[in-house]
């Protein structure tokens, strides 16, 4: 069973219930939520400090979210030594949620 890092603050009951039902990673949800509140974007360091999580955990989730298209960055192929700004793609997140809902409820 995977071990999940959790955000420091409490989640609303409805979000907690949905995460339990669908096995959603709470840290990944916290990153998407945080980025959605910061339309100008944030660095991985700022995200890890805000969520009180390890840098490695946040960076790994950002990589996976970016690969899935839910998050984009201003970095090109070479990221070493750069200050990378991550921004949530709200349309991609909404489309993913709608697609999952359609699948679950056979719409």
UniProtKB/TrEMBL annotation:
GO terms for molecular function: DNA-binding transcription factor activity. Residues 21-102 form the HTH arsR-type domain. Gene3D superfamilies: Winged helix-like DNA-binding domain superfamily/Winged helix DNA-binding domain. InterPro entries: ArsR-like_HTH (IPR011991), HTH_ArsR_DNA-bd_dom (IPR001845), WH-like_DNA-bd_sf (IPR036388), WH_DNA-bd_sf (IPR036390). This is Transcriptional regulator. It comes from Cryobacterium melibiosiphilum.
């Amino acid at each position: 069973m995977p071990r999940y890092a959790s955000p420091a603050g409490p989640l609303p009951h409805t979000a907690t219930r949905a995460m339990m039902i669908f096995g959603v990673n709470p840290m990944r949800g916290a990153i998407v939520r945080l980025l959605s509140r910061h339309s100008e974007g944030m660095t991985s360091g700022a995200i890890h400090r805000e969520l009180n999580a390890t840098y490695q955990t946040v960076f790994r989730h950002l990589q996976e979210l970016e690969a899935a298209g839910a998050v984009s960055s201003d970095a090109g192929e070479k990221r070493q030594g750069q200050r990378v700004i991550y921004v949530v793609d709200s349309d991609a997140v909404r489309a993913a949620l709608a697609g999952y809902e359609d699948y679950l409820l056979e719409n």
